[in-house]
Amino acid sequence: CLPINQPSQILTYDHSFFVVGWGKTDKTDAPTTLQEALITRTNLDECRKFYRNSEVNDDLICATGKELKHTCKGDSGGPVFFKHPFGNTHRYVQYGVVSLGGNQCGVSKRQPGIFTSVIAMLPWITQQLQ
């Protein structure tokens, strides 16, 4: 599902997201099964510090992985989603798209990743769907 622009779906820092992909699991290995990781949103300043020459703007989400699990080469374009309450059940809502990560996968616990925010791009997405 796509997010809707309602206060109940606006996420703050320290929210955790799921990310899945077929990216490398370390420097050389490509997985044979779809991989999953839990990442936590952090302040954009963390990404600004880490990616000094990149343009990190408010249309992006900055997040770090836990226990060296994060995105890597081959994960770009994949979904970043959240299990959101919906009535008596839940729905998985896509909040981001894997965009940029560091060169060293599975090495640094503090290496943040950059994800394009679906909420920021929602006007463009809905226009394209018309």
Automatic annotation (TrEMBL):
SUPFAM superfamilies: Trypsin-like serine proteases (SSF50494)
GO biological process, one term: proteolysis
UniProt entry tagged with the keyword Protease: yes
UniProt xrefs under Gene3D superfamilies: Trypsin-like serine proteases (2.40.10.10)
Highest taxon of source: Eukaryota
Domain Peptidase S1: 1-130
Keywords: Calcium, Disulfide bond, Hydrolase, Metal-binding, Protease, Serine protease, Zymogen
Gene Ontology MF terms in the entry: metal ion binding; serine-type endopeptidase activity
Family: Belongs to the peptidase S1 family. CLIP subfamily.
Protein name, UniProt field: Serine protease easter-like
Species annotation: Drosophila rhopaloa
Organism ancestry: Eukaryota, Metazoa, Ecdysozoa, Arthropoda, Hexapoda
